[in-house]
């Protein structure tokens, strides 16, 4: 019996040994699956230690540069003047690429001298979708990237002012600052107040509204010769009418050249050209006939063409068949005086006998000239070369009425009190 007991005990001890062996095998298997060392006796083992090490390695490779793009991704109604910019902290910009998505046209821009900012060089297009791609690097050379897509404000919800004269131009003493808006303006005072005009001559300049879409500025008398004029348009974000916001922030300037005032006497058929108070020349002319007389009044040269086509049908002079009473494809040395078709121009198709003796035109002022605009010895060529945009041509003694102030750049035909009364301020 004792022997049986001992043997049974040996069996029990053997079973226990097997159990211990199996337990060890299971433990090894579990450690192996978890990616550990297989040391079942390790103390304080952390199963997340390997993940933390991986995160640390990834963090070490991440750029410290933080890129910021204005506007945010997928933004709408973005301003076209100052609505877009890129900046970076803890790094510098490497490249900034901005493109219109529909055309692929790249937008020129400039990275700041310190490398931390970028802005477009010019005004963006309205109702256009753009993509921005930015790359920056930190002090360790590690790169960061960011992208954004946005759409600029729609023309239906914005306004701009097209301005005359051109930036950097030299003009005559009669040139007003004329703004033509692409939307009707109801908040006229705010818009007029957002136009700042500074003059080197110290002349006071006042605005006058011609309807809801045109605002002109001028001094009481003609500009002083040699004046430098700077105009700032601060329309960006300005509500000009319900739901209509400005997108323009622009400064332009121009210089006033010498003073040239030319007086056309329709009765004597002569034009006297006076510069800075001195008569340069008296030129024989032919103005509008009795049936189609030339407007009286002060008219400002607003356009110049070496040659242009003149068709009577475009200004209401048609025959019984509806065709223009005249159609001349190569009118030389033409300068516009009104929006309704009044020009002072060269005339090669009429007899030279009419100049200085007879008024024969449909309302224009004609000077003797040559076909092809290539003879500098003609009166037409001479006057063209002597004239600037903004010079004043005054017509007197014509049987017609005085030209309306808004027909061309001709606000000088309104007295100063009336002009000032047309200001919204």
From TrEMBL:
Top-rank lineage group of the source organism: Bacteria
Q: Cite the record's Low complexity compositional bias ranges.
A: 45-57
Q: Tell me which PROSITE patterns the record gives.
A: LD_TPASE (PS52029), PROKAR_LIPOPROTEIN (PS51257)
User: Which protein, by its recorded name, is this?
Assistant: Lipoprotein
Q: What is a GO molecular function of this protein?
A: peptidoglycan L,D-transpeptidase activity
Which segments constitute the L,D-TPase catalytic domain? 260-396
Cite a GO CC annotation.
extracellular region
One of the Pfam families matching this protein, by short name = YkuD
The record's region (Disordered) falls at: 36-57
Coiled-coil residue windows: none
One GO process term, biological-process aspect: peptidoglycan-protein cross-linking
Alphabetically ordered keywords of this record: Acyltransferase, Cell membrane, Cell shape, Cell wall biogenesis/degradation, Lipoprotein, Membrane, Palmitate, Peptidoglycan synthesis, Signal, Transferase
* Pathway participation: Cell wall biogenesis; peptidoglycan biosynthesis; Glycan biosynthesis
Q: Which residues form the active site?
A: 345 (proton donor/acceptor), 364 (nucleophile)
């Amino acid at each position: 019996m004792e022997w049986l007991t001992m043997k049974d005990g040996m069996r029990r001890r053997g079973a226990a040994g097997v159990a211990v062996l199996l337990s060890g095998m299971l433990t090894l298997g579990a450690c192996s699956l978890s990616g550990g060392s297989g040391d079942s006796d390790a103390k304080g083992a952390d199963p997340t230690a390997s993940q933390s090490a991986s995160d640390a390695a990834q963090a070490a490779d991440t750029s410290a540069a933080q890129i910021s793009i204005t506007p945010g991704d997928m933004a709408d109604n973005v301003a076209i003047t100052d609505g877009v910019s890129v900046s970076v902290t803890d790094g510098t910009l490497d490249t900034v690429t901005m493109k219109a998505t529909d055309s692929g046209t790249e937008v020129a821009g400039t990275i700041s001298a310190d490398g931390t900012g970028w802005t477009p060089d010019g005004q963006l297009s309205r109702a256009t979708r753009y993509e921005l791609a930015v790359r920056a690097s930190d002090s360790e050379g590690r790169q960061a990237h960011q992208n954004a897509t946005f759409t600029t404000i729609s023309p239906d919800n914005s306004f701009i002012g097209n301005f005359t004269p051109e930036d950097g131009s030299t003009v005559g003493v009669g040139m007003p600052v004329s703004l033509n808006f692409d939307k009707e303006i109801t908040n006229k005072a705010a818009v007029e107040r957002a136009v700042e005009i500074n003059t080197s001559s110290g002349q006071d300049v006042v605005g006058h509204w011609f309807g809801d879409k045109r605002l002109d500025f001028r001094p009481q008398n003609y500009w002083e010769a040699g004046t430098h004029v700077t105009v700032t348009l601060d329309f960006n974000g300005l509500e000009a009418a319900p739901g209509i916001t400005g997108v323009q922030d622009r400064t332009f300037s121009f210089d006033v050249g010498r003073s040239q005032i030319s007086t056309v006497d329709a009765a004597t058929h002569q034009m006297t050209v006076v510069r800075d108070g001195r008569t340069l020349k008296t030129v024989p002319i032919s103005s509008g006939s009795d049936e189609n007389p030339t407007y009286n009044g002060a008219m400002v040269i607003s356009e110049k063409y070496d040659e242009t086509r003149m068709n009577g049908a475009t200004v209401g002079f048609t025959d019984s068949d509806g065709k223009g009473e005249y159609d001349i494809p190569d009118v030389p040395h033409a300068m516009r005086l009104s929006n309704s078709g009044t020009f002072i121009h060269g005339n090669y198709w009429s007899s030279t006998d009419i100049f200085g003796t007879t008024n024969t035109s449909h309302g224009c002022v004609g000077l003797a000239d040559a076909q092809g605009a290539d003879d500098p010895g003609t009166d037409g060529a001479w006057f063209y070369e002597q004239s600037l945009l903004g010079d004043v041509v005054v017509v007197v003694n014509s049987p017609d009425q005085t030209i309306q102030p808004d027909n061309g750049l001709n606000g000088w035909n309104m007295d100063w009190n009336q002009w000032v009364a047309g200001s919204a301020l």
